[in-house]
Structure formats: structure tokens, C-alpha cells
Description:
The protein is mostly helical. The chain folds into two domains: about 50-115, no CATH class; about 130-310, no CATH class. It is built from twelve helices and no strands. It has helices spanning about 15-20, 20-45, 65-90, 95-100, 100-115, 115-125, 130-150, 170-195, 200-220, 225-245, 255-280, 285-310. Helix 8 (about 170-195) crosses helix 11 (about 255-280). The protein is globular.
Amino acid sequence: MATLTASRPTALPRAEALGVRFDWLVLAASAWLLGGLYWDGWAHGYGLPDSFWTIWRAAIPAGYEPAVVGVFVFGVGGAFDMVWHTLFGIELGTDALLSPSHLALGLGISLIVSGPLLAAWRRGASGGLAAQLPAVLSLTALLSVFTFFSLFAGPYSGVLGSGARPSSAVLVRTLLGMYLFSAFVVGAALIALRRGTLPVGSLTVLFGVNAVAMILMQGHAPLEIQVAFSLVAFAAGAIGDVMLWRLRPTDVRRLQLHAFAFLLPVVYFTLYLGVVVATIGSSWTVHALTGMVVLSGVIGLLLSFVFVGARD
């Protein structure tokens, strides 16, 4: 957020200072490596079906195949990141979010954290929030990857709508961030809704957990600021869950679906900007503040038409 001032992290201890603890870490990593070596040797010794992937592909739970691919993507991305830094140096500021090597790492992470969500889809998950909490948390983790890599704009890049009347560049950047965030949350909600993994209560988790993670990651803001915008997210998610319960949006109940997709970002940004105006102060015009909220809803509405069109 704009009022966040990141403190300089404490220097990490040198490896020799860790002493025996570091030895145990290396032994644990060695045990993992040797375990895989001996397991593979066991498979060869018993003449089990073998290929590059050996029999372990069959041991991957249904839906976790992309997560396994993500592990390899992340590993390759790590090597790519080392080469990229060697050739071009360490990224600073927004460059760190746009670096191709970091985007490769982000892709790997996205595939890994999506495992429980995809597995729930393969199982045809059903039930309430308690039964589907792993899938909901997986969806939240996926959303959090997206909001992290769009940190250059959005509700957690700064306090949107605060301070003096903005220049055209600031206003455009603000709109970009609101568009992206609206597309992310509505897109995630609609995809989960289609697969039956959006039980009532999941939007509170989705908005709230993501907000807490983003706000705490950004740095040290006054406690009241952190609490206020965390509560905004939880409140918006709770209202979204009420809409989910009352509207019961589906591709058959199209009017309710379009209303849900439009109102979800509108509710969030109405609460967000309301807190900004009431507690921080804003000299932005009423035309800009209200128009930004409406346009965020339009983004959600357009996505809902894509959702319905995909089912025709």
C-alpha cells in the first residue's frame, strides 16, 4: 500500500553459524536424494515397467499431473533465473515482476499450488466449505500468485484513490490495477463456480486470505491501515458469499450470473474507496471514484458473458 514503508530485512546467518542445524538440513536433502536413487534401483531390480518416468507416474493422484509438471518448470525456471541474473543483473522495482525468468518461476508455482483444486475437479467435488476447503485454499493460492505478479498495479500496490487529485497517468494506472484485480477475482470465482468448487463461504476465504498475504508482504504500515483494508476484503468476500447464496448464479440462471459477476468487484471497490475517503482522505473527483467502481463491474460482467458463451 502507498503508506507501507518496507524495513530492511535482518541479515541471514552464515551457513557456518548454523552449525549442526545446517548439517541436519544437508542430511535431510541427501536422504531425499538417496531415497529416490534407491527407489529407482529397486524398481529396476524387480523388473517393473520402466521408462524415463518409471512407474511413479501411476502413483501421481488424479489431478496432480500439472503440479508435477510445475515442479519441473520451477526447477528449470530457477536455472533460467540464475542465467538471467548473470547476464543482465538483478532486477529492481517493477522489473522483478516482468522478468521472463521470474514469470517462469511464477508459472511453476501456479501449476504446483493448483494441485488440490484440479484434483477436486477430477473427483467431482461437492459439499460445503468444510468439505471443499482444500480446493478453496488452492484457488486462493492461485489467485495470490496472480496478484503478486501484478503488484505494479491494483488495490495492494498503493492506496488507490487517496491524496491529491491524480494526474492522467496515475488515473490510468489505477484503472489498470482495478481492471486486473476485477478480472482475477471474477475469473477465479466463475471457473470455480462452473466446476462446483465455490461453496458459500469460499469468497470470504478467497478475498480475505489474499488480502492479508498481500498487505503483510508489502511491508510495515500502521496497524490500523493493515486492519482496515484486511477487513474490507473479508467484508467484500462475505457480501459476495451472501450474493452467491441468494442469487445462486449458474449458466442457466443467466441474469443472476451476470448480476453476480458485475456486483462482486463493485462491492469490493465500493468498500475499499469508502474506507479511503472516510479514513485517509481523497481529493479525487466523485466522477472518477464512482466511474472506476462501475468500470470494475463492467470487467466482471464481460467475463460472465464469456462464461455463458462457453456453455452454449
